[in-house]
Design the sequence.
């Protein structure tokens, strides 16, 4: 057994744990991330299906949004069906402009 000293311990190497560890690193704060799954499992598993715009902005600002920009699919709206009619809700129109994500359009 190895003994390690750190300022912060993070349990779980999911998206939140890994991002927290990175943000702490950028601020010069030592942290250790503890995960009970293998490194390969953590790296290969697809986790997030939908990200809020503020999360996308944070990932890009933290310098870890390259893959998101390359592979992410921007979602500009949804369709709702009611009483046999389908209606599109356009997020960009309702918010007054295009979302800031650099990902591909869905």
Sequence:
């Amino acid at each position: 057994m190895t003994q390690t000293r750190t300022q912060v311990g993070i349990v779980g190497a999911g998206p939140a744990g890994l991002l927290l560890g990175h943000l702490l690193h950028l601020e010069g704060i030592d942290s250790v991330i503890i995960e009970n799954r293998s490194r390969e499992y953590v790296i290969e598993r697809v986790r997030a299906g939908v990200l809020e715009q503020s999360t996308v902005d944070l990932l890009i600002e933290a310098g870890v949004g390259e893959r998101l920009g390359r592979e992410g699919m921007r979602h500009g709206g949804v369709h709702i069906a009611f009483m046999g009619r389908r209606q599109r809700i356009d997020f960009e129109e309702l918010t007054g402009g295009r979302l800031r994500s650099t990902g591909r359009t869905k």
